[in-house]
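User: I'm putting together notes for a lab meeting next week and I want to include a structural view of one of the chains we've been expressing. I don't have a solved structure, so I'd like a prediction I can at least talk through. The sequence is below, exactly as it appears in our construct file.
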Amino acid sequence: MAPGPDFRHELTIKRSRFITVLRRVEDETMARELVTDLRREFYDARHHCSAFAIGADRSVQRSNDDGEPSGTAGVPMLDALVKRETRPGASPASAAADLSDVCAVVVRYFGGILLGAGGLVRAYSESVSAALDVAPLVRRERLRLFTIHVPHAEAGRLENELRSAGYVMTGNEYDAVNTHVGLAMADADAVITAAVERLASLSAGRWHLEGAGTDWVDTAMDSGR
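Assistant: Thanks for the context. Below is the predicted structure for the 225-residue chain, given as structure tokens.
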């Protein structure tokens, strides 16, 4: 999921309303906060079913049927998340089921028509899948982080040069003299050497890369399919 407000999508299936809410989450506490928030907002709904997958290897996976027959809501919702193939437009060989750090809650208002077990499974799965079709997603990569200390007057030019060259910018910090420009790149000797050489060329050797560890970084926005 892209950072920012929750994403919402609604389907009506045999007069029942299925309101899917997606939120980017970093841990179980954040996922459970979404459920709590929606129970408060949709206090009169019959069900608030949930599923989430968290972590680079999606090691944390949970689902909850919230009163629906066992296995008819939370599990199909979780399947819709963890089996989602991202990277729209990529070749089939490069597509991957790698969606993570997202919580889905489906709020159901019962419409008076029983769907049966099979109908519920399809409805909850379709609700999450339809939301993911149009939700804003981002690609994340584990990258090396660096900082460049640059006089304020020259920081804008440096950032423009680095962005034009395809580097991922991670935000700036400031002190009385310098702007501390943050960027990220692949942890590969050739990539880092090229960055060092480019920086030396731009600054006549005055600016240098300072390592700042590694982290998962948002690298590109993908709209839903």
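A couple of points you could mention at the meeting. DSSP finds five helices and eleven strands in the chain. The CA atoms of residues 46 and 109 lie 6 Å apart.

User: Perfect, that's what I needed.
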